[in-house]
Amino acid sequence: MNNFSVCFWMDGEAANAFAFYQTVFKNVKKLSSLNYSDANSGHGGLPAGSLMTVEFELEGLQILLLNGGPIFKTNPSISLHVTCETVAECDELFNKLADGGEVLMPLDKYPFSEKFGWVNDKFGISWRVIVGKASQKVTPTLMYQGGNGSTAEEAMNHYTSIFKNSKILAAHKFEEGEGPVNLVKYAEFQLNGELFMAFDSPIPHAFNFSEGVSLIAYCKTQEEVDHFWDKLVEGGRPSQCGWLVDKFGVSWQIIPTVMIELMQSQDAEGYDRVMQSMLEMVKLDIKALEKAAYVHK
Question: What is the pTM of this model?
Answer without folding.
Answer: 0.96
